[in-house]
Each structure stands twice: as structure tokens, then as C-alpha cells.
Design goal:
two-stranded antiparallel ribbon, WH-like_DNA-bd_sf, 257 residues, elongated, Fic-like fold, Fic family protein, Arc Repressor Mutant, subunit A, ATP binding, single chain, ArsR-like_HTH, DNA-binding transcription factor activity, mainly alpha
Length: 257
């Protein structure tokens, strides 16, 4: 995800980069080593299982391995064309891309995880730069039943003459709304908390947010304050719950809570 956050405007959405993102996503999964970064070669229909792990049958049939490359090419071409011509609202393009991607299920495994990474990439490319600061995935996790129901209702119509995008689009847009509301509440809480902090403490917190961590030396160099003064503020920020202390001695650093 760090690659997407830092270089989203330099990552074109094409088949090669989708495969590359899949490979990177599963880089540390030994069981996926043979197929990561490659379209699926075996059927991966979505099945239901009982408590004993026995299959109860296919819930949803995904694209066959033979059809997958062609369908992904069609999907990517559709996304690229509509991203340029402005016919549809960017959020509708993202919603349709994601639901069709999951309907194709192009990789042997990791399709759900990759769909969430691609959602983030597409939203950032569309100008929704708040996305890294609030988790859409956690919103979906808390509404898993509605998520799967919306997916199935729309996916079951995609290859028919009566496509119904509404169930999925409505769920997707409501989830984005909840994500934005969460971020607004988080910003408001931080505004209230930071309003009571000394200016140097606020600067240290901003440094920790920008870099992911902060040390006494980092804070002293960035703010011009003495090391002893910085230590006092770091200690206070830790006691107040804004920062967490990691390591010891020269290896000591602080991260945001």
C-alpha cells in the first residue's frame, strides 16, 4: 500500500501493473509463490462450506481461466476510456471496476485483498486524497454480510441482458460516506486534543505523522529546540497517550498511537 500512497499518480491502471501489484501483495506468501502475478490457471468459483469444511456447492461462478485475460483486457480498456472522457462520475467508475474485477476473480488467490488495493489506487487517481487517512476496509469488515449480499446481487446480473448495478453501487457509496464521516470525527477529536498542546508538542506530533516515527535527534533538528526540551515534550506526549515509546538507549524512537 505504501507504493500506492506514494506513487499513485505514476501507476497506470493496465494489466501489467495489476499483475505487478498482485505479485507485490503476495510477495511474502510462500504458498502463493507459483501463481502470484499471473492470471489464474484453475477454476476458482466461490463455494460455500459446512462447519466440517465440506463443500456445499458453488455460490458464484467466476470467469474461466480461458476467459480471464480477455475479460480483464475489456475491463481495463473500459476503465481507461471512461476515466478520460468524463461520461460517468469517477466514483461510479471505481464501483463498477471493483465489482467486475471481483466477478472475474482473475487470480488464483488474493483477489479480495488486491481489489481493496485497486480501490485505493483508483480513488487516489480520481482525486480523493483523504483515502490513506481512514480505512475503507474496516468499514467493509463491519458490514460483511451486506457487502457479500450486494456483491452477489450485482455480480449475478453482469453477464445478462438485465444488469443491475444498484445493489453494489449503493453499498459502495454508503461505505465511502461512512469512511469520510469517520475521518471527520477523527480530525475533530485531534483538533480538540491538539488545541491544548504546546506548539513544540504539536510540531513533534506532525513530524511523527509525516515520517511514521520520530527520535529525539529528529525532533531537535527539525524544531531547533534543545534535546532536553524535546525529551520533556516526548515524555509528556507519551504519558498523555499521543505517542508510544519503542526501543531503548540510542535505539529509542516514538510512534503515533
Amino acid at each position: 500500500m505504501e507504493t500506492i500512497f506514494s506513487a499513485f499518480d505514476a501507476i497506470p491502471l493496465d494489466e501489467n501493473h495489476i499483475c505487478q501489484l498482485h505479485r507485490d501483495l503476495l510477495a511474502h506468501s510462500t504458498k502463493d509463490e507459483r501463481h502470484r502475478g499471473n492470471w489464474k490457471t484453475l477454476a476458482n468459483n466461490v463455494e460455500a462450506f459446512d462447519e466440517g469444511g465440506r463443500s456445499l456447492g458453488v455460490v458464484f461462478a467466476t470467469a474461466s481461466p480461458f476467459d480471464t485475460p480477455g475479460r480483464m483486457s475489456e475491463l481495463v480498456s473500459w476503465q481507461q476510456a471512461h476515466e478520460k472522457d468524463g461520461t460517468f462520475h469517477p466514483l461510479l467508475i471505481v464501483a463498477v471496476f471493483v465489482v467486475v474485477f471481483l466477478e472475474i476473480h482473475p487470480f488464483q488467490d488474493g483477489n479480495g485483498r488486491l481489489s481493496r488495493a485497486l480501490t485505493t489506487l483508483l480513488l487516489l487517481r480520481a482525486g480523493y486524497t483523504y483515502v490513506p487517512y481512514s480505512s475503507l476496509e474496516s468499514v467493509v469488515e463491519q458490514n460483511k454480510e451486506a457487502y457479500y449480499l450486494a456483491l452477489r446481487r450485482t455480480q449475478g446480473t453482469i453477464r445478462t441482458d438485465q444488469q443491475d448495478w444498484n445493489p453494489w453501487v449503493e453499498f459502495f457509496l454508503r461505505s465511502l460516506q461512512r469512511q469520510k464521516q469517520r475521518l471527520e470525527r477523527k480530525i475533530e477529536r485531534e483538533r480538540i486534543l491538539l488545541g491544548d498542546l504546546p506548539e513544540l508538542s504539536v510540531s513533534i506530533l506532525e513530524l511523527a505523522r509525516e515520517r511514521g516515527r520520530v527520535t529525539v535527534m529528529d525532533a531537535a533538528k527539525a524544531t531547533g529546540a534543545s534535546r532536553n526540551t524535546v525529551k520533556d515534550h516526548l515524555r509528556a506526549l507519551t504519558e498523555q497517550g499521543h505517542l508510544t515509546l519503542h526501543g531503548a538507549g540510542r535505539g529509542t524512537w516514538y510512534g503515533l498511537n
